[in-house]
Amino acid sequence: MEQKPPLPPFNLINAKQKVQMAEDAWNTRNPEIVSKAYTLDSEWRNRSTFLNGREEIVKFLTKKWEDEHQYKLKKELWAFTDNHIAVRFEYEFHNSDGQWFRAYGNENWEFDENGLMRKRYASINDVPIQESERRLK
């Protein structure tokens, strides 16, 4: 059975660890690495896009990082319970035209007993910024 420690139920220490692990994985910008944190049938809402399963996650992230250059993400634990974690995050990237953006958002995560994320619901807003306004490098 595939496991991704730390496993629920979460406490402050391992919830923060889970958030840091997610941040580290996303900052690799490698869809295969990121997808390993999710169940095979994981359910996502990312903005107005709905996905199901690792295969769709990999396709989605591959396209995302083809369009979002120099992507850099920071996540912060917001709240947690037994098998749920809520995070706030921001990330920065530029598009192919060189326009920089900062995206702000919140995610709600639900984990199975093996520590794999079975649900991820993300609400995200983008703000155009100047390159000189970047905070994440």
Automatic annotation (TrEMBL):
Xref: InterPro entries: DUF1348, NTF2-like_dom_sf
Matches recorded under SUPFAM superfamilies: NTF2-like (SSF54427)
Protein known as: Uncharacterized protein
Organism: Dyadobacter beijingensis
